[in-house]
Write a structure and sequence with these properties.
about 350 residues, alpha/beta, Rossmann fold, seven-stranded parallel beta sheet, globular
C-alpha cells in the first residue's frame, strides 16, 4: 500500500506539534499540508526546532480544495472549527478530530456545555467517539472520528471494565485528576496569567468541567443503572502528564483482587494499557512520551472501598497518540507505527 496523505489543521498548538512529531516517524504517511491561521507562511520548525531535520511543507491557510489530495485530516483546532471542515469532506477523506466537536452525540448537550451551537448536527450520526481500547474495529464504519479528551481517557480506561462487570457501585464515584498545564493549550499562560503555573497547584472547572458530559455519555452506554460521579480537574506545575485518582465503593462480595483481575483480563490484548501490581505507586513519569495508560488498583483502609490510579501523557495517549492509534486501526497499519 502506498503512503496516505495527511493534512494537519491547527499544526502549531501543543497537540498539533506533538502530532507532527509522531507522524514524521510513521512509515505509512506523507504529511502533505500543514495548516494554520496566524502562522501562515512560517516553517513548522519555528515552533519546534526538533522538526528542522525533516522536510515538511510550509504552513498555509486551510482551503477545502486541499481535500482532493488528502486521505486523512487531523483537526487540532479550537472547538467548533472541525465542524466547518466536516461539511466539505469528500468521499475519500477521513476526519480525525482532537477537539470536542464530535465527542457528544446530542448537539443540545454540546451547546449547553460548550456555549456554542453545533454547526454540523446532521454529521454527528456519521461520527464515532473512539477510545480505541473500547471501540476497536467499529471505527472502520465511520468517516468522522471524535477522539476522547485527555482526562476522560485516563478515567474511562480503568472504570468502564469495572462498571460493565458490576464490580463497583455506580454512585459516589470520586475522580480527582491532575494534569500538566499543556492540557490547557498554548494559550494557557494568558488564560491563567495570574497563577504561577510553575510552582502552584490549582483546581478549576469545579463541578462543571466540560468533560463531565463526555464521561457521563460513555458510562451510560455501559450500564443500565443510575450512576453519580464527581470530577475535579487540577492544573499542576508540570508541562505534561495526567494522574487520575478514582475512589470507588465495591459491590457486596467484591474485592480489590476482583478489580485487578478484571482489568488484566479486559486489557490482555491491549498493547497500550499496562496494569501494575496491586498497590503499586505509579506516576506520570512511568508514561511520559509514550502512548501508554498505566493503571494501579490499591486497597483502602476500608474493606468495601478501592482507590484506582491511572496515568498517561495528555499530549500523546490523551491526544495525538490516540488519534494516530485510531488511524492505524482504520488502515490496518502496524499498531506501533508512529507510536514507538
Amino acid at each position: 500500500m502506498s503512503k496516505i496523505n495527511i493534512l494537519v489543521a491547527g499544526s502549531t498548538g501543543y497537540i498539533g506539534i506533538q502530532l507532527i512529531n509522531l507522524l514524521v516517524k510513521h512509515n505509512k504517511v506523507n504529511i502533505k499540508y500543514l495548516c494554520g491561521n496566524t502562522s501562515v507562511g512560517k516553517e513548522i520548525f519555528f515552533f519546534d526546532k526538533k522538526l528542522k531535520k525533516f522536510k515538511l511543507p510550509k504552513i498555509i491557510r486551510f482551503n477545502k480544495k486541499l481535500l482532493k489530495d488528502i486521505d486523512v485530516v487531523f483537526t487540532a483546532l479550537p472547538n467548533g472549527e472541525a465542524q466547518s471542515i466536516s461539511k466539505h469532506l469528500l468521499k475519500k477523506n477521513i476526519l480525525i478530530d482532537l477537539a470536542a466537536d464530535f465527542r457528544l452525540k446530542n448537539p443540545l448537550i454540546y451547546k449547553t456545555w460548550y456555549k456554542q451551537k453545533h454547526n454540523a448536527p446532521n454529521l454527528i450520526k456519521n461520527s464515532i467517539y473512539s477510545l480505541p481500547e473500547l471501540t476497536g474495529k467499529k471505527i472502520k464504519k465511520f468517516k468522522i472520528i471524535g477522539c476522547p479528551g485527555c482526562y476522560p481517557t485516563s478515567i474511562l480506561i480503568p472504570i468502564i471494565p469495572l462498571i460493565k462487570k458490576d464490580l463497583i457501585r455506580k454512585k459516589n464515584i470520586i475522580i480527582d485528576s491532575k494534569s500538566g498545564y499543556s492540557g490547557a493549550g498554548r494559550g494557557v499562560h494568558k488564560k491563567y496569567k495570574n497563577k504561577n503555573l510553575y510552582e502552584s497547584l490549582s483546581a478549576y472547572g469545579i463541578g462543571f468541567h466540560r468533560h463531565n458530559p463526555e464521561i457521563e455519555q460513555i458510562i451510560k452506554e455501559n450500564t443500565k443503572d443510575k450512576f453519580e460521579f464527581t470530577f475535579t480537574p487540577h492544573l499542576s506545575p508540570m508541562f505534561r502528564g495526567i494522574l487520575s485518582t478514582i475512589y470507588v465503593d465495591l459491590n457486596k462480595g467484591k474485592t480489590v483482587n476482583n478489580l485487578y483481575n478484571e482489568l488484566v483480563n479486559f486489557y490482555k490484548k491491549s498493547i497500550f494499557v499496562k496494569v501494575a501490581k496491586i498497590n503499586s505507586y505509579i506516576s506520570t513519569n512511568d508514561v511520559i512520551n509514550t502512548n501508554n495508560c498505566k493503571i494501579s488498583v490499591c486497597k483502602s483502609k476500608y474493606h468495601n472501598k478501592a482507590i484506582i490510579l491511572s496515568s498517561l501523557d495528555n499530549l500523546i495517549k490523551g491526544g495525538a497518540g490516540q488519534a494516530i492509534q485510531n488511524m492505524n486501526i482504520i488502515y490496518n497499519f502496524n499498531p506501533f507505527e508512529g507510536l514507538r
